[in-house]
Amino acid sequence: MIDPFGRHITYLRVSVTDRCDFRCVYCMTEDMTFLPKAEILTLEELDRLCGAFVRLGVRKLRLTGGEPLVRRNVMSLVRALSRHLESDALDELTLTTNGSQLAKYAIELAALGVRRVNVSLDTLDTAKFAAITRWGRFDQVRDGIAAAKAAGLAVKINTVALKGVNDDEFDDLVAWCGAEGFDLTFIEVMPMGEVGGDTRVEQYLPLSVVRARLNRRWTLADTDERSGGPARYARVAETGGRIGFITPLTHNFCESCNRVRVTCTGTLYMCLGQEDAADLRAPLRAGDDDAALEAAIHAAIARKPKGHDFVIDRRHTRPAVARHMSVTGG
Ligand code: SAM
Q: What average pLDDT values come out for the chain (330 residues) when binned by 10 residues?
C-alpha cells in the first residue's frame, strides 16, 4: 500500500475497544458513553480485518484502545494474530496499554511472540496518579510493569507532559526509566475530544520546554534513530537510556508517516489528526469474501492526507478533532 505522497503504509494500529478502566482527565470525561456491542467488531472480525491488512503489506500491528487488555477474551485475538509472526508475514505484534492488566497477561503475551509493550504512565506519585487517571491505582500499574519486565518484554513508558501536574517529575521519570532499562517518550497533549473546561489549554506544555528542563540535569545527545514513528530520540549519557519526544503541536511529523488506524467499529482513519475516515465494517460484514474489504482499504489509502494541523490556543477552545483519543487509540 503506497499513499499519494509515496509513503508505504506498513503499520496498523487497531483499537480493540473504546472502553477503559481509567478515566484520564485529558483523554475522557468521567461519564463517557460507550458504544453498543452490535457496533463493535467481534474478535473474529478484528482478526479477519487485520489479516487483510497483513496481506496488503502491513508489517507491524499495534493493539490499543480504550484499554486493549480489558476487552473480554482479548488474548484469543493476540493468539490468532500471532500466527502472522510465525509465518513471518508480520515483523511485530505489540500493544499500548495503561498497564493495569499486565500482571495478569505479561507471561502469555511474551509466549505469543509479543516483544515490546508501551505503557502509559504520567507520574510516579500515587496521589497524582489517582488524580490524573481518576480510577487508576498506581501500585497495580507498577506491578504490571514489573511483570512485563520479568516476562522479558521490552517496556517503553509514554508520558504526557502536563503543566502544573507532572512537570516537577521529569527528572525522576528519566532516572527511574534509566535504572529500569525502559525507554521513555514524552508526548504533548493533543486537542482531541471534549473533556470539559479548558483543561488541555491549561495543561499544554511544549516539549521544547521539557527538553530545556531536562538539559539542566542530564546530558542529552540527539540520535537519528527512528522507530518508523513520530518520535525523535536522544540518549541520556548518565543512564544510557533513550528518550523520545513526540511533538504534534510544535513539530510536524507527518512526512514519514507510515501508519493508519482502525477503530473497534471498523472505521479506518488515515490520519490521527483529521476527520476523514472509511467504513470497513460494511464490506467486512457483507460476506466472507475479502475482495470488497481490500478494495475499500485501497480506496482509503489513496485518500491519506499529507498531514494534520493540530492547534491549541485560547481563542479556539473547541477540540481540533472531535473524537476522543480513546476512539482511535493514539
Ligand atoms: N489505554 C491505553 C493506554 O493507556 O496506553 C491505550 C489507549 S490511550 C488513548 C493511548 C495514549 O494516548 C496514552 O498514552 C494516553 O496518555 C494518550 N492520550 C490520550 N488522550 C490524549 C491527548 N488528548 N493528548 C495526548 N495524548 C493523549
A: 94 97 92 93 98 98 97 98 98 98 98 98 98 97 98 98 95 98 93 72 88 97 79 94 84 78 96 89 94 97 83 55 70
C-alpha cell at 45: 472480525
In 3-state terms, what secondary structure has residue 94? Answer: strand
Q: Tens digit of pLDDT for each residue in 20-62?
A: 999 999 899 989 899 999 999 999 999 999 999 999 999 999 9
pTM of the entire structure?
0.94
Spatial separation of the C-alpha atoms in residues 73 and 54, rounded to whole Å: 22
Q: Which stretch of DSSP H or E encloses residue 37?
A: none
Q: Please, is 79 exposed, middle or buried when counting C-beta atoms within 10 Å of its C-beta (0-12, 13-18, 19+)? A: middle
Torsion sign across C-alpha atoms 162, 106, 328, 127: negative
Q: What is the largest CA-CA distance in the chain?
A: 60
Return the CA Rg of the chain. Answer: 19
Round to the nearest angstrom and report the end-to-end CA distance of the chain: 21
Residue nearest to atom 20 of ligand 1 (CA): 27
Q: Return d(Cα 324, Cα 129) in angstroms, integer.
A: 20
Ligand 1 pocket check for 283: Cβ under 6 Å? no
Find residue 92's DSSP bridge partners: 60
Cα–chain-centroid distance for residue 307?
18
Among the atoms of ligand 1, which is closest to the Cα of residue 326? 9
Question: d(Cα 232, Cα 243) in Å, to the nearest integer?
Answer: 8
Q: Measured from the CB, is residue 120 less than 6 Å from ligand 1?
A: yes
Q: Would the CA dihedral through 180, 158, 248, 65 be positive or negative?
A: positive
The reply to whether ligand 1 has any atom less than 6 angstroms from the CB of 101 is no
Give the angle subtended at the CA of 269 by the CAs of 230 and 326, to the nearest 5°: 80
SS3 assignment, position 130: helix
User: Which three three-digit cell numbers place residue 279?
Assistant: 467504513
Q: In the numeric block, which cell numbers belong to residue 256? A: 514519514
Give distance in angstroms: CA of 330 to centre of ligand 1.
6
